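Hey, I'm writing a tutorial for new members on how sequence and structure tokens pair up, and I'd like a real worked example in the thread rather than a made-up one. If someone can provide the structure for the chain below, I'll link this post from the tutorial.
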Amino acid sequence: MVGTAALRSLADAAPRTYWLDDPARPAALAPLHGPEATDLAVVGGGYTGLWAALRAKERDPARDVVLLEAGRCGDQASGRNGGFASASLTHGFGNGVERWPDELPELERLGAENLRDIAETVRSHGIDCAWEDTGELTVARSPHEALELHDLATAMTGVGHDVVLLDEAGVRAEVDSPRYLAGLWDRAGTAMVEPARLAWGLREAVLAAGVRVYEGTPVRSVDEHAGGVHLRTGDGEVRARQVVLGTNAFPSLLRRLRLMTVPVYDYVLMSEPLSPAQREAVGWRNRQGVGDASNMFHYYRLTRDDRILWGGYDAVYHFGSRIEPRLEQSRTHERLAEHFLDTFPQLEGLRFTHRWGGVIDTSTRFTALFGTAYGGRVAYAVGYTGLGVAATRFGADVALDLLDRATTGRETERTRLAMTRRRPLPFPPEPFRYAGVQLTRWSLARADADGGRRNLWLRALDRAGLGFDS
């Protein structure tokens, strides 16, 4: 049962996304009516689509580009996430070691370059999104997690990462919680950003580059036509030579992708601004993003006005990959509030002003997957599993490389990667998908409570190369 202090902290929380509840939010753009023709059509106005449109114009300013968004650019996962821009393209160092050990140095280099390029785009376009190069602090709350952080620090230091292993006193000197036993500060691998403002800034950059952006324009179907691709919308159509699909968690226009990802709901709270005394009580002078080392992890950070964003723990899958607005509010918010007060008991009395949730997409390898359809005229990048704030720029570049390869035959260092060439295993159809996801979530929570020991089910998934990230 959730305690009264947690319920009290949520009493005034508005059921909407804090980042989108911003007077800087731009006005909606008009939908498409009638026919359009273009060199490149981009479907989806989240990070993947916005980066694809911008990078296409940066590569070739003469290329004609149209972007189609069902709602408003940045309103879905791109605008409501925690704002952790990670250099990792592999969903963390450990997942990269396990899946692509031979390519990991190249993947790490490409990820670091990608993060630097995003920072340069923010600077050069004057995007007001509170970009902060803080790094990320991973905290251990149990002895087995502390041992795992020690091993991870050794491995990461061995390949040149700028990481600092912290004992209990050291981690509490950074962010003070009586629950912390150890920490690992990766000082260069993550930046904090206001996610919706980044998306809106990219939309402005895209418009300034000459891209025609239509909001309120869901694409109903994609088909081949002579020499190109035909997209049908509610009140119009687009004929394009090439297409990039960036719809991610939402049902794909390509049937072949229907089992490659599943949508899971992630839930978030935002507090009121900390008072000076509350700020002093938690420390946090270096303003790192923070994440638990557990399977069922929380992520949290400070905003520019010293609110605390607190999210994660549950990743909820609904039978049949159901996506509905009413699922964006959940009892998970109450559980998150209780966990917050357990982590920071010195902040009892702090209130939350916003509570929200929404879908992200996950793949069985936790990282994006890439490919083409319709003879190489359609490219896609999906499945970022919560680390898409930065990796979507890389994914957009991969998609554009794949389109270029279809016409020129030219490979790039991105298209030669095994991560690009190989597809992960699909999720099973229902009802096995739902049963498998629920059993995996239960097993991950059991492992957290049992010293990290993985049961037979998790070990079987490990051997099969499958998984589900909470």
